[in-house]
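Recap from last week: sequence in, structure out.
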Amino acid sequence: MNIPASPEIIRTDNVTKKFGEMVAVDHVNYSLHENEIAGIIGSNGAGKTTFFNLITGYYPPEEGTIWYNGKDITALPAQKRVSLGMMRTFQLTSTFDNLTVTDNLVLSFFRAHKKHSLFNLFFTPRNRHRKHEKIEACLETFDLQSVAQRDVKHLSLGEKRRLEIAMSILAEPKVLLLDEPLAGLSETEIKGVLDVLRLNFSKQTILIVEHKISKVEEFLERLTVMHDGKIIADGPCEECLMAPEVRKSYWQID
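Predicted structure tokens:
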């Protein structure tokens, strides 16, 4: 008996992006379902990051439509998409380096859940907010307790990456979009980040854009491979990676 697919949360119809004469994303049709852990890979220049920028609102498409929960968001700016529940992290961590780890989490939480209190937050003792149960739980979940009072500028890259993902998850987005979250990390740091993400299996929709499949293959439920701006394979990881076109364009095996 087939198990029904979870509801569709993001869909693109014939989305196209050009830079001058170059077609970076070429009439791409794609769908992402609720609580799915999916990945997009491709060689350099495949179009994966440009497609990611289209989904998150950083580029407008020349053609096509982008849907979120059945709503046309093609013309919606990036910040408006965040307010709908789409949270993106970047290759370079976007933290407040001169604040402590805990204060970064406090700011992320209040920015997402108590927007009307942000002004007051800067004019009241933050100790009151640092003890919030969700802040303390987040420090424990992401193994950041030992560096909770350390300024972010003194963290390792792996610790900063965990903090950035923690800040994103603390905002409780419906979709977490990760742009090469493992770039520049050691094997130990990669394991730490993936262990943290696994805690959100079946709780959150996660889409990862990555260059090296070996780092995320066991983590993903579904894989999409892009080449020359088009999707050339989509489905279970092993099946996609063995597809003839993927072997030729991604693995460069004839």
